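Anyone opening a protein record will find just a pair of labelled lines. The record below illustrates this layout.
***
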Amino acid sequence: MAVRYEALDGRPPQEAGIVDDGLDAFNHDNAPLDDVAHVTCVARADGGDVIGGAVGRTWGTCAELLQLWVAPVHRRKGIGASLVRMFEAHVAAQGCTTCYLTTFSFQAPRLYRALGYHVAWEVRGFPQGIVKYEMVRPLPKSP
């Protein structure tokens, strides 16, 4: 069989979906991915509106914080730190012993450092000197 290779620029074409589906099938055949559990912690204003959130997942004794967001008007008031701590406490109660995350230098690496995360590795080479950090923190044992 002859194989032809192509590089496709721009937005992901339909071929990207084929690659995603193939990788998902391979992963499900080779790892217990049904054990992955999604976790969402939110902060609400008095009226009930969501003003911030921490979204992640657990798998085994590891937790991954995928997203942390606080509405601009509520930033720098401790809400982000409280959400991270809530996420950590929730996953620790489920048996997680390690939490990790990815952040860029223009996002919240200082916050995460202040919360006890350390840089496991970094990637440089992005525009305007932006750096990508993979950060990790051992979680305290849940009471």
